[in-house]
Specification:
single chain; alpha+beta; Beta-Lactamase; Alpha-Beta Plaits; 3 domains; five-stranded antiparallel sheet; about 15% strand; rod-shaped
Length: about 525
């Protein structure tokens, strides 16, 4: 006979439930490990199908298997196993379907097999009805518990993904910072020992041959800034036309500057270096995507009008720093001076720069260079010193002797000074001016003392008859309160006169004998 489940019926054996849940869990993990997990919609369909199939199989068995086989004893526990297993494995809504199907199967068994539950025992019918309700409620509760667990797992997974994304972002930032650190270390290692070294490298800009000068300017940009694409425009026929470029062809590079607007025209209009960073403050980012230039600096003439333009079209990202922008401005300033000199050379055909008799620069050129160096020192806060040398008694010598003695002194100075230093004349023939760019006052005084000591020791010789003259030296250095290079000359002359008076008080004018 079929034996109805009494009060012990609703609770199936714990080991059966545990093994069923464990089996479902392991099956799900096996599917996930092999990438066989279906989509959520198909997963719910599979769960509902398995719930209906399992309950249907038990229902068919309860109707077909004879009661002597003893299936009735395990019928309700098996239904519980199906509900709990489906709930644990698939969650909602499969758990609801399993609970409803189990309740419906239990009710169908009650009505289709009345011989199993006699009508004379109403309590058994009531117990069977309660069992059906419990199956439905058990499926709902188990499904809710599993759904809550799944939601917590989903939240944990989402948190894990967010944490992973943050870690990846931090890793990217760390990598970028590491690259910046390596680039800064490389720049520190590769940077010149001093600004003087940079200035000496720029000495190549002193060439007066225009094509060679154009190439030297672009080479300097490549060596100092690392620019891989740049161009030089020079005023030709009222237009700025490209005269030199690296490489020869570059996308978006015009042969001549025309039109209005853009970074280039802002640099020309404001007479200063303009970078892509400056444009970011006033121009939408979408427009900057079509900007072909990263930096532009106008080359200004003596009157302050643009005579050329220097542009950088490609530069390593980490090189676009305030320090390199300042260096670019310094190169633009040097290139302006060099371009002015080359233009004058073309106009005068080698005239007006050097004195053919002495080898020193002319007074006009020296005054112009002193004014340029004075402006550069003020603009870039660089040191600048001058040494003023007076040859007392030089004007009393014959003209030929004056030229030979002055040439010997100019040659003597060139041999003992830096390549970046300038030696030339002043309007008075008995005075020479030495310009010491990037030299402080103490360095200038050291140079003056060395010149005096060597001349006094007889290091200066000239192809003249024995002549006797006095050498007086005065020095001065740039300071922010000065407004004109003439003030530097006046202070150097005052220093020269103080040294002369001090020498006389100490026993007479210092004299040096120059022999043939």
């Amino acid at each position: 006979m079929w034996v109805p489940i009494e009060e012990t019926g609703p609770s199936s054996p714990s080991w059966v439930t545990s093994w069923a849940g464990l089996g479902g869990f392991l099956a799900a993990r096996w599917r996930r490990a092999r990438g066989l997990m279906p989509t959520r919609l198909s997963w719910d369909a599979i769960g509902c199908g398995e719930a209906v199939g399992g309950v249907g199989l038990l229902l068919v068995g309860s109707l077909v298997v004879p009661e002597e086989a003893g299936l009735g004893i395990f019928y309700l526990p098996l239904l519980w196993i199906v509900v709990i297993a489906i709930s644990i494995r698939y969650g909602t809504p499969s758990a609801y379907v399993a609970g409803g199907a189990a309740a419906l199967g239990s009710a169908l068994t009650l009505f289709l097999r009345p011989d199993v539950y006699p009508a004379s025992v109403p309590t058994e019918e009531l117990s069977q009805f309660v069992q059906s309700c419990l199956l439905l409620a058990g499926g709902i509760v188990a499904g809710g518990l599993v759904q809550g667990l799944q939601q917590r797992l989903a939240a944990a997974e989402q948190g894990h993904q967010q944490a992973t994304a943050k870690l990846e972002a931090l890793a990217d930032r760390y990598q970028v910072l590491a690259q910046v650190k390596c680039e800064l270390e490389r720049q520190i290692v590769d940077s010149p020992a001093s600004v003087v070294t940079l200035y000496e490298a720029a000495k190549r800009l002193q060439t007066l041959h225009a094509p060679e000068l154009y190439r030297s300017i672009l080479d300097l940009l490549g060596e100092v800034l690392g620019a891989s694409a740049c161009a030089l425009y020079v005023q030709r026929g009222g237009r700025l036309c490209v005269q030199a470029a690296r490489p020869d062809v570059w996308p978006g590079r015009p042969d001549a500057i025309h039109g209005d607007g853009g970074l280039v025209h802002q640099a020309l209009r404001e007479r200063r270096v303009v970078t892509i960073h400056d444009r970011l403050r006033h121009v939408p980012t979408a427009e900057l995507a079509h900007e072909p230039v990263l930096m532009a600096g106008p080359l200004l003439g003596h009157a302050g009008d643009p005579i050329g333009l220097l542009v950088v079209e490609r530069l390593p990202f980490l090189k676009l720093t305030p320090t390199n922008v300042r260096l670019f401005g310094l190169i633009v300033d040097w290139a302006s001076t060099a371009l002015q000199n080359a233009s004058r050379y073309e106009e005068t055909h080698e005239g007006g720069l050097e004195d053919d008799l002495t080898g020193g620069y002319t007074a006009v050129y020296m005054m112009r260079r002193l004014e340029e160096e004075f402006r550069r020192a003020r603009r870039h806060e660089l040191p600048l010193s001058i040494v003023l040398i007076e040859l007392t008694g030089l004007l009393d010598l014959p003209v030929g002797h004056q030229s030979r003695l002055t040439r010997s002194l100019v040659t003597f100075l060139h041999q003992r000074l830096r390549p970046a230093d300038l030696v030339g004349h002043l309007p008075r023939a008995d005075k020479l001016l030495v310009i010491l760019p990037l030299a402080k006052l103490e360095e200038a005084r050291s140079v003056a003392r060395r010149i005096e000591a060597e001349v006094k020791a007889g290091a200066l010789t000239a192809d003249t008859d024995d002549a006797r003259f006095s050498l007086s030296v005065g020095v001065d250095a740039f300071s922010p309160e000065l407004s004109s290079p003439l003030q530097m000359l006046a202070r150097a002359l005052a220093d020269l006169q103080r040294c002369r008076l001090a020498s006389r008080r100490n026993g007479g004018v210092r004299e040096t004998c120059v022999g043939a």
